[in-house]
């Protein structure tokens, strides 16, 4: 039996672990396939406060993990195979780790960026391929870039990247864009944004010093083309990692956990959500960490309330 179990170890989960551990709540953190979250796949992080010269993503996550361990947090590796949130204590079955029980649960499983699934893509993640313009745009000053996608996120990423790049080409497999009219108009009015529409991405082409461009199929002519660029930003959306919940928690139409505004509370008392699994807008390491702090404080307040209630009931008996 644990007072609190945290599912996920990105900036949100590890921050929650630090706060709960310092409050002597002795949390258990369940690590999945990617301990440390998406930051472990990045190189240098320059926008996390406190690091003047930046810090490598894996190093930042390792430091946060060690900080949580220092205060007594416990870690367990494995997938959550099954979870029962119908009553307290909540029951969590971990692959190869048996069944665990907890008085409170913090869900910080994040959201996975969608990739194109084409040759050369995964090999060059962090070496010219990115899914976050805010995170990596700074590294491409005075370079040519590609943004793949046709929705609002792609238009926003392309517009943002023009602050650094000399040219940004939007590649979309259809002639029509899915983005709202206002976002399309804003992008089309930007002289730095070029268009390669009705083109299907085929391969990320890399050279000796990084990405050289994106090989595409021109759907109109049937010919393959190379769109030259120094970096490729994939902006085709994110998928929140909530499938294991099996509909037990209220989510929006896209699968993101719905929380009470201004808190991390879900529709189930004692269950809290933080980080990208409930954030459809910001998706930054620092905002995830902040929501992890909120979740820990919400969970601590919840647990204290139930401890007092249980103690009062015991006295009455």
Shape: elongated
Q: SSE order, as H and E?
A: EHEEEHEEEEEEHEHEHEEEEEEEH
**Helix-and-strand structural type:** alpha/beta
Compute the average pLDDT. Answer: 91
- Radius of gyration equals 22 Å
Q: How many β strands by DSSP?
A: 19
Portion in helices: 25-40%
Main beta sheet: 7 strands, mixed
Strand composition percent: 25-35%
Low-pLDDT runs of 5+ residues are none
Number of helices: 6
Keywords: Disulfide bond, FAD, Flavoprotein, NADP, Oxidoreductase, Redox-active center
EC number: 1.8.1.9
Protein name: Thioredoxin reductase
Subunit structure: Homodimer.
Describe this structure in words.
The chain starts with a strand and ends with a helix. It has helices at 11-22, 57-70, 133-136, 152-161, 181-188, 285-316; strands at 2-7, 28-31, 44-45, 55-56, 74-77, 80-84, 90-94, 98-107, 111-113, 129-130, 144-148, 167-172, 193-197, 199-207, 210-218, 224-228, 231-234, 238-240, 271-273. It is built from 6 helices and 19 strands. By secondary structure, the protein is of the alpha/beta class. Strands 1, 2, 5, 6, 7, 8 and 19 form a 7-stranded mixed sheet that branches. Belongs to the class-II pyridine nucleotide-disulfide oxidoreductase family.
What features would you highlight for this structure?
single chain, elongated, 19 strands, alpha/beta, about 25% helix, about 325 residues, Thioredoxin reductase, 5-stranded parallel beta sheet, 7-stranded mixed beta sheet, FAD/NAD-bd_sf
């Amino acid at each position: 039996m644990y007072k609190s179990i945290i599912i996920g170890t990105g900036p949100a989960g590890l921050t929650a672990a630090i706060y709960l551990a310092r409050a002597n709540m002795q949390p258990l953190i369940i690590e999945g396939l990617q301990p440390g979250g998406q930051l472990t796949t990045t190189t240098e992080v320059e926008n996390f406060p406190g690091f003047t010269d930046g810090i490598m993503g894996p190093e930042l996550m390792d430091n946060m993990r060690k900080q949580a361990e220092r205060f007594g947090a416990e870690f367990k590796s494995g997938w959550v195979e099954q979870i029962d949130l119908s009553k307290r204590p909540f029951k969590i079955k971990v692959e190869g780790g048996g069944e665990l029980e907890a008085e409170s649960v913090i869900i910080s499983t994040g959201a996975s960026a969608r990739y194109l699934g084409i040759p050369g893509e995964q090999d060059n993640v962090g070496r010219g391929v990115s899914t976050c313009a805010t995170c990596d745009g700074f590294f491409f000053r005075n370079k040519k870039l590609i943004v793949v996608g046709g929705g609002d996120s792609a238009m926003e990423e392309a517009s943002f990247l023009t602050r650094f790049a000399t040219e940004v080409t939007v590649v979309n497999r259809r002639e029509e864009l899915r983005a709202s009219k206002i976002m399309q108009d804003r992008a089309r009015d930007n002289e730095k944004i070029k268009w390669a529409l009705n083109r299907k991405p085929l391969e990320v082409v890399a050279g000796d010093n990084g990405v050289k461009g994106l090989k595409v199929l021109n759907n109109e002519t049937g010919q393959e083309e190379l769109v030259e660029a120094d970096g490729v930003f994939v902006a085709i959306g994110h998928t929140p990692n909530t499938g294991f919940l099996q509909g037990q928690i209220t989510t929006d139409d896209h699968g993101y956990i719905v929380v009470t505004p201004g808190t991390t509370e879900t529709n189930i008392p004692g269950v809290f959500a933080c980080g990208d699994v409930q954030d459809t807008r910001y998706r930054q390491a620092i905002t995830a960490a902040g929501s992890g702090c909120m979740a820990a404080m919400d969970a601590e307040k919840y647990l204290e309330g139930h401890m007092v209630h249980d103690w009062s009931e015991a006295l009455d008996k």
